[in-house]
Structures are given as C-alpha cells and as structure tokens.
Amino acid sequence: MHPKYRPDIDGLRAIAVGSVLAYHAFPSLLPGGFIGVDIFFVISGFLITTILLQSLAAGDFSYRDFYARRIRRIFPALVLVLLATLAFGWYVLLPGEFSQLGKQTTGGAAFFANLVFLGEAGYFDATAETKPLLHLWSLGIEEQFYIFWPLMLGLAWRKRWPILRVTLVVAAISFLVNVLTVQPHRAAAFYSPLSRAWELMAGGLLAAMRLQAASGSTQPRAWTKHVQSVVGVGLLVLGLFMTRSTKAFPGWWALLPVLGAVSCIAAGPNGVLNRYLLSNRVMVWIGLISYPLYLWHWPLLSYARIVVGGEPSLQVRIALVVASVVLAWATYRFLERFVKLHLSQTMLRGLAGSGAALALAGVLVFLGTPPPRNDSQALQAVADATREDNYYNGFEEAALGGQFVYRTGSGKHNVLLIGDSHVEQYAPRALEMVRTQPGKARTVYFATKGSCPPVPGLFSGADTACEERRAAVLDLALKPEIDSVVLGACWSCYFTGAGPTVNYFVDDKKAVHPFLGGDGVDLSLKSLGETLKRLSAHKTVYLVLGNPVGMDFDPLKQIQGSRLGGMTAATGQLKAPMPQDQAQFNARLKQVAEANGAKVIEPFASLCADGLCIRSMPDDGSPAYKDIGHLRPRYARSFATYIDPALLDEDAGGK
Fold first, then answer.
1. Contact between 283 and 275 (Cβ < 8 Å)
2. Distance CA 286, CA 279 (A)
3. Rounded to the nearest 5°, which phi and psi values hold at 484?
4. Given a cut of 90, is residue 245 above it in pLDDT?
C-alpha cells in the first residue's frame, strides 16, 4: 500500500539532488550542497515507514513483495550506470585504478559501498574526486536500512510494542553514536549506518506520528502547515549555506537538513512553500528523475577530473551537468518506466541476477581480470606506486601511556616518532632496521595523525581532534620510558602552499592568527621552538625537515599521452627541479631546531643534488613517490637512510 502521491515530496527530492549536483560540479557556489543526501535519507525513511506501517495495519505485508519493489526501483538505473562506469573505466583507467573500480563496483552492486569507502580516504579528501562510484555510499546506507527496519517493525508489530516509542529509541541511539563518533572517528561517523540511521528514522518518526494522528479526531490548523513549510525550507537554506566540509559533519550540523526535511514533509502538500515552490512543475520533473540523476552525475564529473588530470573547466562542468540531466531523463523515460509497466517475475529475476553478476565482475576486475586497455609493465609500475600506502604493515598495534601507537623492535632504548603522515612514511625504514640490524635498532613507537603537525596551537579548522592527540603524544614524549623523540611533518604543506589551499592559523587562546594576512607563520615557528626546547631538556630530539613536495613528484606525471588515446610511461632515472621555496623554508626550520637543542635530519640532502631532486627509484626507475608528497613504502624501506641516526643506537643514545 503506497502512500498517496505528493508532488511536493518530488520537489523536495529536486532540492536534494540539485544541492548535491551543485556541490560536486561547482563547490564554491554551494559549499553545503552535500547535505542533499541527508534530505534523501529523511524522505526515504518517511516513505518506507509509511508503506510498512500501512501494509502491517492492513495485514497484507510481505517481505518478498517489499524487496521485489526495492529491486524494481533500485536495480534498473543502477545496473545501467555500473555497466557504463565499468566499461569506460576499462578504456581510460590505469591498472591499479581499474582494480579499485572493481572493488567499488562490487560494493555498489552489493550495497556495501559505504563500508568500502570507510576503509579508504574520507569523502571530502582530494582523492575522493577520482573515485567514480564514491556516491554509492549513500545507497549502501539506505539499502542496509531497508534490511534492518522492516524486520524491526514487523517484530514490534507482532509483539504489540508501541511503534512510536520503538522508532524514537532507535533514532536516539543512532544520533548518540553520531555525535560521539564525529570528532574522534569522522570517516566512521560519515559512512557508518549506525551513525546515519537516525536521519532515516527522523522520517520514520514522522510517518509513525502521522499514522497515530490519523486515528484521532483532531486536525492541525491550516496556519501551522504554512509555518512548518516556511521553517522547513528556511532550515534547508540555512544548512546549504552554513554547513562546510571542514565542520564536524554529520554531528549536530546534520540537524539542519534533517529537521528542515521533516518540517517540509510534515507541512503537507498545502503548506504555502510546498504548494507554490516544491510542487512547481519544474521541481516535480527534476524530482522524478532525481534517482538516475544522482547516479549519473558523479561518474561523469569524476571521469572528467581523471581524464583532464585536475579540475575541468567551468564550461566542461556545465556541459557535464546538462549531460547528466539528459541521461537521467532518458533512463527514467525509457528504462525505469518500461520496467514499471512490464514487470514480471522473469524480469525481476533478471534484474537481481544482473546485480549479482556485476558484483562478481567487480571482484574479478579487482583481482586483475580482465586488465584495462592501457596495460603495460611500465604503466603497471606507476599504478603499483600509487597503490602503496600501508606504511604500518608489519607493526604491532599497542598502547603507550594511554595513547594508541604502532610499535616494532625490542632494543634497549626507545624512540618515539610524532607528526603527520610525513613521519608515518618512515615506518617501513624502521621495520627494515629491526629486521637487518636487530642488535642496534631501537624499540620504535610511531604516534602519528594525518594532517596534524606537532606544533601546539596550529590548526586548519578541518580536524578538530588534532589538538587532543597532539597534546597527548607530546606529553607522552616526556615520560621516562622514552629515550629520544623524532618530530616531523609535511612542513611545506602547511607553510609554503605546496599542499591543499588551506588558510592555517594559530590559536594562542587570546586571538586567532592566520597564515595568510597574519602573523601565524612566525607564531607557529615560535611554538615549535618552544616545544623542541622543552623536549630537548630531557631527551635527545630530532627534527625531520620536509622532503620535496609538489605536482612534479606525482607518479602520474611519468605517464605520457592521453587517457582517451594511448598512454605510455617514462622510465629511467627521472628528476624534477628542486622546489626553492621549500629548501629555503627548511633552512629556516633548521635554525629553529639548532637554536633549541634539536638535531636535524635533512631529506633534501639525500633526495636532491645540483638543483634537481629524484622522482624515481634508484634500482628500477619506477616512481619513488606514491603521490605528490609521500615517498612510497618501497623507497623508504630501502633508500631513506637519512632517518637511520634516529632509529639506531650506534649513532645516538638516549639521555
């Protein structure tokens, strides 16, 4: 039993999909557009719960019929988009990229894409833009909800539990998980069904309340509907322009789109903005094609970034948005409507079988069969470099002074390495020293956190958990069981503009001092110097300067030709010009270290000579970097010998 059709809900879908599309294509135009997914969650929770409760009340609910409807609704467009994405990926992607697309395809077809991406980079990271099926994470959340919620509601109905109370308890638990995990485990809070279910349950709560109200005699006054409509749209607009990817999202911020969507739906079709804005014919039309539009838009934009090797021009992005709309309309008009009008058991089984076949095909692609069109030993070497990222492979997970660390070795002296991922990149070298020189190697502890430099008071605003971790590990460095301390970071990323465009700032608890247009840089170096001085009074302290960073060191730069044509990879001993601004800043860091009792480790001295820096491995000419800034594990393991003085007892002992 489907609820009565409401054109205003299709209009709400139009706001949801339009927001997401605008955010992905023109992020500066609508910085909070990603909350459109949260609007979708509320709509789904409301409609599905309404259908379930009406069917349960009528006594004709069937799990088989329910999931058959889901297959009919979800699979036609999804199968088509997955096939097209996989086929185009075979044509333009490198071996490693195509393998990863296989994993994404399986996740998308089997509805666990959110769990696939949970183990990778975050939704707001730069690498996310080159994952053609990233957007299917939200479909995974919804389908996991559709497995759990019908079973839960059916049980509650049979046991005569109060439906409204059950729904409220589930929503409250999920919301609590959301707010408790969004700071320390941002990716988990974003992708996990446990921390997202409350958004669907918010719609479910509204459905349960409406069903309960329908059995009563009182009807709300007309003016309350108009207020709900205006408040709902207002909250959505507020969310779209106030929410940012740098904020702790979902967390409390997700209340804006969720409560906004709930208020709009509660207003009903006669609420003033529901009637005249959301029920507008254009909005309804966009809402009708919203599902295929959501499916098509991201692969097009993602592949454009991959083919161009960066952000496509404004004209290209506009053309891709138009293409997305055309493809969505064609999918709705010729595929979805055809399936709806001609659905049979044979077609239903065919759709389910197609989804299963795509999931299996994704597994085979992930395992390397078939290889992509652009497949060669040299291209594979580049792809292998970009996929090397498990720096802590072989380490033990341990706790030290109440902090999570990675540990290796059993030397008589202990060394603690603190910093961001540019310290983490030396973990393979530490493991190699333990393996090859066990008598000299120290016991090594890595206490790192990505994008969190060991400079008290330095922030980007994106990672609110950085300060807590930083303060804890710097205190840990002073404990008697630690003999020596190594501090490092991607200094160039923060101080010279070699990394993402972020206006870092220093918060000295009196005022905020930005790097751009402020005195944040000087205050950061002062804070670093004070930290080194405090530590060196008790320990042997090393400061690792930065290694060369920049697009010149991207392994993909070794590729020549076009992804739409043919590609080859350059081999041999490749080099890039030394980044002079980075070298100059390293010299400044060296002065700070020496003035405050720290020893200096200089990667530039080993990686660069005569104004040129290495880009490739000394042995086989494959890339020495895994991306624009991190040395790949294989290079660090064999050739990052400059870090050895901090790892071995023969060069320096603890104080």
1. no
2. 11
3. -140, 155
4. no
